[in-house]
Design a protein that fits this description.
alpha/beta, protoporphyrinogen ix oxidase, domain 3, Rossmann fold, 11 helices, binds uridine-5'-diphosphate
């Protein structure tokens, strides 16, 4: 007899949502994770009174009322709004592209002047085939060179001509002074950190950390009637259809004995010659007034199976490979797949929770 109704592989946001909801319905659940901590890439580590976003900046934002109400059961959210700046050749620019950015570039002071100038620099293209063609058709070459080309090439290690435009369509381009990075209704950082929020989600649920599913697959599988797998789908199927490709990241974090390093949580370095893409100053996510600070330089990194997969590379070749795994996944009995790694999708946190809600409707 199986000891658990469900084995959830992965204690990130997807796994935690599934585990919390199933437990609430009365199922007996075991959650395992290969890492020594819960929370997946949302994990925050408290250091000297500052919550460090260990796996990169995580800013919660959503327009989904159900998702917002859901996360608010486990944390209070502060009023953080993401307003990153861009650093390029020793100048700071307002970002995402908005009227202040265009004023800084071109001295235009009204939406009408900005629109006129943009119309003269855009490179019209009725059918843009890639990221570069799309952005040139929206804002022209100067803006592309300053804000997009270097950053995107570093981030993806590919020419923007070889990338799909959806990657960048998530960034707003506005002719107002609104510099909010997101268009969503709700935004903030959980007070106390993401780790504490996910701990609350998993309260009273059996959790085994440092437990690698693949090292004890047979035994773990036999312990539950059903499984929800949130890890890499290609690994689950022993890479039988080739490996899926990812981009990885490397973080260098240091403590500084000064109260403020850069005056903002996120500054993007868009210059191709600067090896990192952003500097994160964690205390600004929480409006702290400590006399010390922690900063993290974020470097894009080539992915290998030993590194953490951050971003799926959703080009045609990988999409075709993923579809083969998806076909196999649909044939699995009593195993359900979900989350960024199992669905090979560039999910934000709210998308992840929404996807978990959708899977819950299908679970027996
Ligand atoms: N991007 C850019 N310049 C920037 C910020 C973003 O060219 O200063 C592009 C880049 O290609 C990136 C994409 O926009 O991969 C999406 O950016 P976002 O900030 O949403 O990426 P994430 O936070 O998910 O890494």
């Amino acid at each position: 007899m199986a000891k658990y109704d469900y084995l959830i592989i992965g204690a990130g946001l997807f796994g935690a949502t599934i585990a919390q909801q199933l437990t609430k319905k009365g199922f007996k659940v075991l959650v395992i994770d290969q890492r020594p901590h819960l929370g997946g890439n949302c994990y925050t580590e408290a250091k000297d009174g500052i919550n460090i976003h260990k796996y990169g900046a995580h800013i919660f934002h959503t327009s989904n009322d159900q998702v917002w109400q859901y996360v608010n059961q486990f944390a209070r959210f502060n009023h953080y709004v993401n307003r990153p700046k861009v650093h390029y050749q020793n100048k700071i620019y307002s970002f995402p592209i908005n009227l202040m950015t265009l004023y800084q570039l071109w001295n235009v002071t009204t939406p009408e002047q900005a629109q006129k100038k943009l119309d003269t620099v855009k490179i019209p293209n009725p059918n843009p085939q890639n990221l570069e063609e799309w952005i040139l058709s929206q804002v022209g070459r100067e803006i592309y060179e300053i804000f997009i080309k270097g950053y995107t090439t570093k981030q993806w290690d590919r020419d923007p001509k070889e990338l799909p435009s959806f990657i960048i369509k998530r960034l707003p381009i506005r002719l107002t002074f609104d510099d909010n990075y997101f268009n969503d209704c709700y935004q903030g950082i959980p007070i106390g950190g993401y780790t504490s929020m996910i701990q609350k989600m998993l309260e009273g649920i059996e959790l085994k950390l440092n437990t690698d599913f693949f090292s004890d697959r047979k035994n773990l599988t036999s312990q539950a009637k059903h499984m929800v797998f949130t890890g890499k789908i290609d690994k689950y199927f022993n890479y039988c259809h080739q490996e899926l490709e990812y981009r990885s990241l490397r973080f260098e974090t240091e403590k500084l004995s000064i109260p403020d390093f850069q005056g903002n949580a996120v500054i993007n370095y868009t210059d191709a010659a600067v090896p990192y893409t952003r500097i994160i100053e964690h205390k600004h996510f929480e409006f702290l007034t400590t006399d010390h600070t922690y900063v993290t330089h974020e470097y894009p990194d080539t992915w290998t199976t030993k590194k953490i997969p951050y971003y799926p590379v959703n080009n045609d070749a990988n999409t075709q490979i993923y579809q083969k795994y998806q076909t196999l996944a649909q044939k699995e009995k009593n195993v359900f797949f979900g989350g960024r790694l199992a669905e090979y999708k560039y999910y934000d946190m709210d998308d992840t929770i929404e996807a978990a809600f959708n899977l819950l409707k299908r679970l027996p």
